[in-house]
Amino acid sequence: MIPNKFDYQKATTVEEAIEYLVEYGDEAKLLAGGHSLLPAMKLRLNNPVKLVDINRIPGLKYIREENAMLCLGAATTHYDIESSELVKSKIPMLCQVAASIGDLQVRNMGTIGGSLAHADPAADWPAGMLATEAIIVIQGPEGTKNVPAKDFFMGLYTTALAENEIITEIRIPIPEGNIGTAYAKCVQPASRFALVGCATIISKNNGLCDRVKLAFTGVSVNAFCDEAVEHALTGHAPDVDNITIAAEKAAINVDVLSDHFASENYRRHLAKVYAKKALMEAANNL
Amino acid sequence: MTNMIGKPVKRVEDKRFISGKGRYTDDIVLPGMLHAHIIRSHYAHAKILGIDTDQAEKMEGVVAIFTGKDIAEAGINGVPCGWQVDFKNGETMKEPPHPLLVAAKARYMGDAVAVVIAESKALAKDAAEMVMVDYEPLDAIVDAAMAVEDGAPLVHEDIPGNMAFDWELGDREKTNQTMAKAHHTTTLEFVNQRLIPNAIEPRCAIGDYDSTNDKYTLYTSSQNPHLIRLLMCAFVLGIPEHKVRVVSPDVGGGFGSKIFHYTEEALMTWCSKQLGKPIKWTAERSESFMTDCHGRDHVTKAQMGFDENGKIIGLRVKTFANLGAYLSTFAPCVPTYLHGTLLQGLYTTTAIHVDVTGVFTHTTPVDAYRGAGRPEATYLLERLIDKAALEMKVDPAALRFKNFIPPFDGINEPGFQTEVALQYDSGNYAPVLKRAMEMVDYEALREEQASGRNNGKLIGIGISTYIEACGIAPSAVVGSLGARAGLYESAQVRVQPTGKVSVYVGSHAHGQGHETTFAQIVADKFGIAMEDVEIVHGDSESVAFGMGTYGSRSLAVGGSAIMKGIEKVLEKGAKIAAHKLEASENDLEFAEGKWTVKGTDKSISFGDVALTAYVPHNYPEGLEPGMDFASFYDPANFTYPFGAHIAVVEVDKETGKVDLKRFIACDDVGNVINPMIVDGQIHGGVAQGIGQALFEGAIYDESGQLVNGSYMDYTMPRADDLPLFETDRTVTPCPHNPLGVKGAGEAGTIGSAPAVVNAVMDALAPFGIKDLEMPLTPEKVWNAIHNNQ
Ligand SMILES: Cc1cc2nc3c(=O)[nH]c(=O)nc-3n(C[C@H](O)[C@H](O)[C@H](O)COP(=O)(O)OP(=O)(O)OC[C@H]3O[C@@H](n4cnc5c(N)ncnc54)[C@H](O)[C@@H]3O)c2cc1C
After folding, report:
1. What is the pLDDT of residue A65?
2. Residue B485: predicted pLDDT
3. Residues A57 and A161 sit within 8 Å (Cβ to Cβ)
4. Which residue of A51, A111, A170, A186 sits with most ligand 1 atoms within 8 Å of its CB, as the best mutation to test the pocket?
5. Cα separation of the two ends of chain A
6. Of ligand 1's atoms, which has the minimum distance to the CA of residue A40?
7. Quick one: what percent of chain B has pLDDT higher than 70?
């Protein structure tokens, strides 16, 4: 459990961090909470020569409301989000997502930016990001771009983030109207990551769901919005029967992962069960 | 302090453990120490065509690289096996060499191929990455029952059918005849799955050769320092024993996996001699998963026969025991003498026959893991009897009561002679089950279950009763069964001139709390304060001899050795006291830490007597000065704790997840010295048994790759998986040791797994599901429900 030799560098600004990334290319790695990166380094699966610590960059850790958006600094920890009154009052499901991650030590170190950049297929945040239609703000040598969550996750540990870019902020539109949110997670019993994680937001108008967002993590190589479920419930009342019917559509047209904790068949079944759990809870929270 | 026995004294060792002051092997830093990294085969079976160390050797800070060829050329033996179980036809057990580093062939994923020694751990690891091993991968076999089939890849070319031994116990003829007459026969085929022990402290060994005195010190994270010294000196390195000191300081958990003599211990010792410097090796976590001996792994078919009254009349068992690639120290004894001998259980079964084949496979060696053989035996019996109850439509508790051996105390009534070689010491089995049923409120629970079923709730109640043989072990008996060592224990009770007491014990604590329990006994018997007693263990230089800690033996055997020392002290003390008090020894009584002339207030304290022994100015004629007694205690028999466990579960039909609602354990471990420590042992053991029932299990793929060798993939039970355990005890003292104690270290593990599995099967009974294999993962349970709906 000893990593390869590496240099450690503290960045004081985002620009400085990017300079290092440009200079060292794929030999450099940003260090946020270190809770995905360091284990990978210790197993020598990831062998950066230059570690660029972004934890001391002022202005990367914050939670605020701006223009009907929840804005989270990339280096904000899971625990800060979990315990934020603002987040709780706007999109409580995000607090649930954060609280479901690892244990308190992990949540006190790990960051939302780090989790998104790492894009573990079983990580919790991606489901929350997709269901909320979050925007990932990315800064690189050429400036800043805004990538919608649905375009960000591209495969197993693969994202729209380039080698020399850094996530600086996550912007989450605050949903309006009568909304209910929930995150339902079936934990993988050894790692406690998500075997199946289901994040959802529904809004109700005149007794019917006028908007349904529902996203899975853990089910496939990357998190995804399950449009079949969303469509099936949209325009219907969020009652048990309709939710059951909609949940049955879960994970049908995706390649589902299989491992010794859950075969493809069982995982797909769990997706349906957890879609229903999440939708029922969201309906109760309306 | 008198009346210390039976008190829930807080563990004195915990202060250093919970404040991070424990001193483990890896904490030891010696001047000039070098660090070793072991290169291991990532194939389960491969020819080693060549090893290129050129580049690595040239790296700065690299001191030496040794390969299997170097070890072979130096003529070093492999690590030996400590137990011999021969073939039924008299052929000797097949005992292939287990070299410190393999030269020609790797036989399991993790087999040690070379060692890199460098100035730092990091350098050793960096250099190891530059060593090029040229492997030719070969087909592997991982399943014990398949390994004996024709055409299976051979683990050792010269061992046909991969068989180490085949063994039987009991009367085959009588059992076959009895089974033929059975009114009802229940059959169970199952795998008792392979477990990875997962001591939280990885194994660690430091070899330290002192050329000035031509002496060696081995620091090792072991449960068993003296035995390691014996095996390493006599069988591996050929060093005279008095030249070697073995130290096992604080050890962070073992559960059996640190009993054995591992190759790394001898390797570090040998390398240190070659280089003239101390060398440390500490396992990485993935190395622990791959190379700490695993446990269990039996493939079994068993049949239990009943007469028309529901009495068990016969039991027939065939087991293939997976031993892994080499024979670890106690491996042959676990599936045989610790498994077959326990198949009487608590029942009056009149004919038993067990047949066990020990099999080599391309997997990590398998040896004793908490319970060792006895959990396998208990699982077999308790699943069979539950399945039989289901088939015969009788209550599983009632079926057990009907078959219990009647009470016997081993004093007025003789011990119970089983059909499988053992003689139980004392037992009274019905009360533990009665008490456990009372604690869980069995009748009410059955009603709740019935009404739950009507509402689609899958509640299950599972009972398991167990007996185990521990207090290991009477030397002559185990000798006749193939042990190559005696299994007595030693203790030296040294009363210091000031009346403080140091006790040197040959058992070894690695979580058991000996420093507390043993001190309680000494304080109680001498009537002194516990703080005035010191318990010393784990160093062959200060402790005369020892056989270590495993098999729930430390109190029953080691504690008895202490008792012998205590008696010797009190005997001698009485002589000194009588002299000083000018009274006859017969007129003295010892209580509250002083000898008193009966009926007077003339007395002398323990401390004054001790001082007199060391300052013998006014002293009994002919009596030796000093107060220091070494004792060895060889038990007359094993001890036989027993108990009843009940699990209550609820199964989620939608996901198959098992929710363990309650767990009740009523155990009888004989007399209890420290109830808090016994409870702790039961709790930990129960957690491990639940781990096997619901979560754990090593998974090898066909090529012999360990698929789940990390905490991301191997499910350990966690606090939030477990309910608050409800425990109680009955007390049936052991008739043959001075403290009347039986042992509590393994009981929890032995009883708990079948209780949980029985509970889940009970919950699933409405679906017609009769048997599922451990671990009962959600997917397995869901599949079963799904396929039977
Ligand atoms: C014991 C344990 C349990 C865990 N359980 C869970 C769980 O249940 N659910 C879950 O989702 N996760 C879990 N995690 C992972 C945890 O959430 C990590 O904290 C997270 O995945 C990574 O965040 P980090 O801040 O630690 O990133 P780091 O480990 O520091 O970095 C991860 C990767 O992201 C890159 N990176 C970091 N910040 C940025 C940025 N701002 N811009 C661009 N790239 C960046 C790094 O270069 C690196 O490649 C667990 C981790 C541990 C150790």
Report:
1. 98
2. 86
3. no
4. A111
5. 48
6. 29
7. 100
Mutate to test the interface with B, among A243, A260, A261, A268 (most CBs of B within 10 A): A260
- Contact call for B121 and A2, based on CB within 8 A: yes
Mean pLDDT of B718-727: 96
Residues B529-560, buried b or exposed e (16+ Cβ, 10 A)? ebebbbbebbbbeebebbbbbbbbbbbbbbbb
Q: Which chain B residues contact residue A189 at CB under 8 A?
A: 695, 715, 777
Q: Residue of the nearest CA to atom 50 in ligand 1? A: A102
Query: Closest partner residue to A186 among B655, B713, B783, by Cβ?
Result: B655
Interface touch B779/A1, C-beta < 8 Å: no
Q: What pTM did the predictor assign?
A: 0.97
pLDDT, tens digit (0-9, with 9 covering 90-100), for B328-377:
999 999 999 999 999 999 999 999 999 999 999 999 999 999 999 999 99
β-sheet bridge partners, residue B232: none
Dump pLDDT digits (tens) for B542-571: 999 999 999 889 999 999 999 999 999 999
Query: Looking at the domain covering A178-284, what would its CATH class be?
Result: alpha beta
What is the Å distance from ligand 1's center to A111 Cα? 6
Q: Where in chain B is the domain with CATH 3.30.365.10?
A: 295-472+637-787, 488-633
With b for 16 or more beta-carbon neighbours within 10 A and e for fewer, the B348-362 pattern comes to bbbbbbbbbbbbbbb
Q: pLDDT class for B1, splitting at 50, 70, 90?
A: low
Secondary structure (DSSP) of B189-225: EEEEEEE----SSPPEEEEEEETTTTEEEEEE--S-H
Give the burial class of B172: count Cβ atoms within 10 A of its Cβ; 0-12 exposed, 13-18 middle, 19 or more buried.
middle
- Cα A37 to ligand 1 centroid, rounded to whole Å: 7
Q: CATH assignment of B295-472+637-787?
A: 3.30.365.10
Task: Specify which residues B39 forms β-bridges with.
Answer: B114
Contact B555, B743 (CB under 8 A): yes
Range list for CATH 3.90.1170.50 in chain B: 27-138+200-253+258-291
User: What residue ranges of chain A have pLDDT lower than 70?
Assistant: none
List the domain boundaries for chain A.
7-53, 63-173, 178-284
CB-based pocket (< 6 A), ligand 1: A 29-37, 39, 54, 74, 101-102, 106, 109-111, 113-115, 117-118, 120, 123-125, 161, 166-167, 192-193
On whether the CB atoms of residues A172 and A70 are closer than 8 A, the answer is yes
> Parallel, antiparallel, or unpaired for β B112-118 and B62-67?
antiparallel
- pLDDT band, residue B484 (cuts 50/70/90): confident
B595 part of contact set with chain A, CB < 8 Å: no
The CATH code of domain B488-633 reads 3.30.365.10
Kindly state which CATH superfamily the domain B27-138+200-253+258-291 is placed in. Answer: Aldehyde oxidase/xanthine dehydrogenase, a/b hammerhead (3.90.1170.50)
The 10s digit of each residue's pLDDT in B104-116 is 999 999 999 999 9
The mean pLDDT value for B306-314 works out to: 98
Q: Are B491 and B558 in contact (CB under 8 A)?
A: yes
Chain B hits for A269, Cβ within 8 Å: 782
Q: ipTM of this model?
A: 0.95
* B313 has a pLDDT exceeding 80: yes
CATH of domain A7-53: 3.30.43.10
Q: Does B140 have pLDDT greater than 70?
A: yes
Average pLDDT for residues B465-490, to the nearest whole number?
Answer: 91
Cβ contact A263–B122 (<8 Å): no
Q: Closest chain B residue to A269 measured between Cα atoms?
A: B655
Task: Test A260 with B121 for CB contact under 8 angstroms.
Answer: no
Q: Is the per-residue pLDDT at B424 higher than 70?
A: yes
Whether CATH 3.30.465.10 fits A63-173: yes
A188 phi and psi angles, rounded to 5 deg: -75, 125
